[in-house]
Amino acid sequence: MKSKALQQYLSTYAEVESLQLQHFSNSCDYVVVIPLCREKYNFLDSVFRSIKDNCLIILVVNSPIGQNDWQQENQLLIDYLHENCLSQDCVSNNIKLLKYNELQDILLVDRNSDGLQINPKQGVGLARKIGADCALSLYAQGLVEFPWIFSTDADVVLPRNYFSQIKSLKEANSAVVLDFKHITQGRELSQFQFLYDFKMRYYLAGIQWAQVGYNYIPLGSTLIASMESYAQVRGFPKRNAGEDFYLLNKLAKVKPIKYKIDNCVIQIRSRFSDRVPFGTGPALLKISRLEDWSDYGYYNPQCFIYLKLWKEFLDSLWKQGQLTIIKPKDAFLQKLYHFFNCQTVFSKSQKQISSNRRWQQFIHQWFDAFKILKAVHFFDKKFERLDYKRLLKDDAFVKVSDSKLNLFIKDHDTI
User: Fold this and answer.
1) Structural domain span for residue 61
2) Out of 183, 216, 243, 399, which residue is the most buried by the measure of CB atoms under 10 Å away?
3) Are 62 and 147 in the same domain?
4) Helix, strand, coil tally for the chain in percent (to 5)
């Protein structure tokens, strides 16, 4: 018998496709979800070339309403999948189970045909949610052995131990975020990719140094979510980008996020993309259009120094056994204090905070990944952004960076 939260989610918040699997009978050990839009025919061979485990692949082929060209490209992929399978069973009007000779079974969800296309504002977030909700439904029926939703993309190569490593994890984590490495072809694209990868890893180093929590790099292709926790936070947000960031932000408030598993790295192929408003593909396009790559700027290290000061200020408000609501002494931090309306927020919660432990829990819930990013953006307006070379020469960078970031620079710097 599955938990009340899981059952409630499926009955109240899950997408309709998950309700159409009541008569599904195939069982598996693991289930992996991949949203598809404008992908090549042979992507499955590369994604799963090292995987021999008993898993079900849920493919959600989707296109936004009004994108007829994308819809036609997707239909070619759907036709290819149909034509090359050994057999197919119709599960519902837009879901089919496809069986292959040397590939795992595929649950193909059609959100591409006329009348089934996705709202452009919901995009990939809805596509991931549909797939994840289907995975949750199958788990609730006892058809999936391990209670984890594996989320990835069509531009990856999964490691051989992708599934097996999860066996060692306990219920202490709400999600796992795996490490990644980009595969590039050509020196120029490699340089663009390095500049963006460095941006993500530098930001992570900065918030780790500031000790504000939420220490991971959110990518939909490296995310593994606990079924139980996924249901508790009501699944993926229906957004056309950033769905991974916002899901992890919710999951981190339920239980800790496990960041990285040793020797389990997802390889991601570098490519330009305009299918979503932001993310790796659009960032590479942006960098490629710069007259000079040195025009690509990074947060000034002072942003993270102020972030650390802000966190230290929050910690200091618990004094002599009670929450003392005062403004920061620093004038710039005072502006952030007013920006977040802290006086009102803290006053409303003061009666419920009876110990330093409760105060730390409050800080974790309130000053979350989204507010951390907003705080960095707030500081970013005060300090000049630096290009890559100037940043590395900045004295404050040495303070903010860590050994992992420095090793990444040593191993991948092509500038």
Assistant:
1) 4-179+218-268
2) 243
3) yes
4) 45, 15, 35
Distance CA 85, CA 79 (A): 10
> What distance in Å separates the CA atoms of residue 90 and residue 248, rounded to the nearest whole number?
34
Handedness of CA 153, 158, 164, 168 (dihedral sign): negative
Residue 347 pLDDT class (50, 70, 90 cuts): very high
DSSP-assigned states of every residue in 135-184: HHHHHHTT-BSS-EEEE--TTEE--TTTTGGGGG--TT-SEEE-EEEEE-
Question: Residue 45: which CATH number?
Answer: 3.90.550
Same domain, 18 and 132: yes
119: DSSP letter: P
Q: How confident is the model over 269-294, as a mean pLDDT?
A: 83
For residue 268, give the nearest of 221, 202, 217, 218 by alpha carbon: 221
pTM confidence score? 0.95
d(CA 60, CA 146) in angstroms, rounded, equals 21
Q: How many CB atoms lie within 10 A of CB 142?
A: 10
Number of domains in the chain: 2
